[in-house]
């Protein structure tokens, strides 16, 4: 099938409510498996926290929004959000063998509401590698978020409330009001939801290695295909590799890779300007001051939590350069990126700055591509009939490169 045909076919067939879905006349199956996160108590919303035999109080600046309407729907106690603790993840898998000998975990971008655009990506990777492809949602995204956060009328109403509160906001939309508001109120959510997802991936690894996973063999190779902010998360995970779980894994990055403050996420489908300013202010401009008042965050940003130190090194391009580049160099032979020349959210030169280093002496392969059709970061493969021939060729080219690296 052509890309557009595959897109609409898979979008129509995909259903997270079903345990399994036969696609392409039974040639492949999509399996939807339940997952219970064991790591939800790390999130804001608990009255106290335990870690390394230490007790920490509730996050000191966990606060209510200034609008009752927004507070009721969006500013929930994160650790109490049921959908984020109990959710399904999907696996595209050939029928043989019963337990896959290889798997690729596919990570999405920031503020995704569904898997629609990734279904063809997963199917293409499966066909080209013969491996099972796991679609694993980041905390509070896709089916890990309350349905209200994707309800167009409700979110449109809250968009107008938000624009009334912040008249100078840029990039505000019903599509990003939920994530923008939540991060604006509490920028730490960017870190804590990432940490939960980080630990959830390790939990999934342990399930596979223990032999109890129903579809993945205990000795299977497990690699990663990560897009946009999913790449940021996976870089931290790979650079830290807790318990050595990821020491043999490979990471292919698509439209991602730079440190946080070298991305430009203000976009009607990603974040609005007020949220971006709040995150930037917290993590880039005033982090040291916040760490003096938030003992738990300071604990996680110390060497007692190496993942927190790696995260810090990936926040500000001009800080912790030696640690960041040492960690990237250590995984350079298992890391590859493909970036798009006209991507304004993740500029290709910032990917080079991060992955090849300040002195361009890190041996990470970064491929720069450009397409002869209009594309954006959030929509690299448009569905317009006018460009389908070239889109078909480019998606095949991109995923052939990815598959060759991940085979």
How would you state the average pLDDT, rounded? 95
Anisotropy-based shape: globular
Uncertain residue ranges? none
Order of helices and strands: HEEEEHHEEHEHHHEHEHHHHHEHEH
The overall strand count is 11
CATH class: Alpha Beta
Number of continuous helical runs: 15
The main β sheet shows up as: 9 strands, mixed
Walkthrough of the structure:
This protein has helices spanning 3-13, 68-73, 82-85, 116-129, 152-165, 177-185, 189-209, 229-240, 273-285, 287-293, 295-300, 306-313, 321-330, 348-355, 388-406, and strands at residues 20-23, 28-36, 48-51, 54-57, 86-93, 100-107, 132-135, 216-227, 251-254, 335-340, 365-369. It has 407 residues and is an alpha/beta fold. It has a single domain (3-406), classed as Alpha/Beta hydrolase fold, catalytic domain (Rossmann fold, 3-Layer(aba) Sandwich), CATH 3.40.50. The strands form 2 sheets. The protein has a 9-stranded mixed sheet, with helices on both faces. A two-stranded antiparallel ribbon has the order 3-4. Helix 14 (348-355) links the parallel strand 10 (335-340) and strand 11 (365-369). It is globular, with a radius of gyration of 20 Å. The mean pLDDT is 95.
Secondary-structure blueprint:
Layout lengths: L2 H11 L6 E4 L4 E9 L11 E4 L2 E4 L10 H6 L8 H4 E8 L6 E8 L8 H14 L2 E4 L16 H14 L11 H9 L3 H21 L6 E12 L1 H12 L10 E4 L18 H13 L1 H7 L1 H6 L5 H8 L7 H10 L4 E6 L7 H8 L9 E5 L18 H19 L1
Parallel strand pairs: 6-7, 6-8, 8-9, 9-10, 10-11
Antiparallel strand pairs: 1-2, 2-5, 3-4, 5-7
Helix pairs in contact: 1-4, 4-15, 6-9, 8-12
